[in-house]
User: Fold Methyltransferase domain-containing protein from Paenibacillus woosongensis.
Amino acid sequence: MINQSGVRIFDRQAKSYERRRRKLQMAGERSRLLRHARGRVLEVSVGAGNNFPFYPKGVHVTAVDFSPKMIEKAKEAAVEYGMDCELLVSDVERLEFPENSFDTVVSTLSLCAYQNPEVVLGKMKAWVKDRGKILLFEHGISTNPTYAWFQNRLDGLSVKLVGCHQNRDILQMVHDKGIEIENLERMMINSVFLIRGTVRKGL
Assistant:
């Protein structure tokens, strides 16, 4: 069953996500990460298509979000940027694709929102091909004790207002799933991460 409360929260934010896209918010970070996308790409929790301006030419993107309002905005963005794109309304946590379906899997600022982020990471790893890329732009718990204290205190309010956890240990989850980190950038007091990961299968 889709988390209808979560859908409503993100439906309400669709217009603000679109405004951020039009401002090319976080353009540097998105560009540095997404230039590594190749071939058949799966983008989970696509939002309003905020990554679309930064994909290299020649990729085919399958983009998924459980918010119909977000998908409406992403469709507009796909037309605007001439994307070779298929858009699906679906809950990523319950989505199924055959294993080894994609050359690249992309998630930007979405692991904070899932009820079971470890499950989603496991799906990403299964869906990507051997030696395929998992590209993550995520935020989570900081290594700075003071900042982490505030993140923990504000977590419940953040989930209620914007559907987003502040205190998840992103690097530990990636490590636990056996995703090899090729490149890592840490930002904002070690609470935001650009991760270029590779999946090696059959070892």
Remarks:
- The chain has seven helices and seven strands.
- The chain has one domain: 4-199.
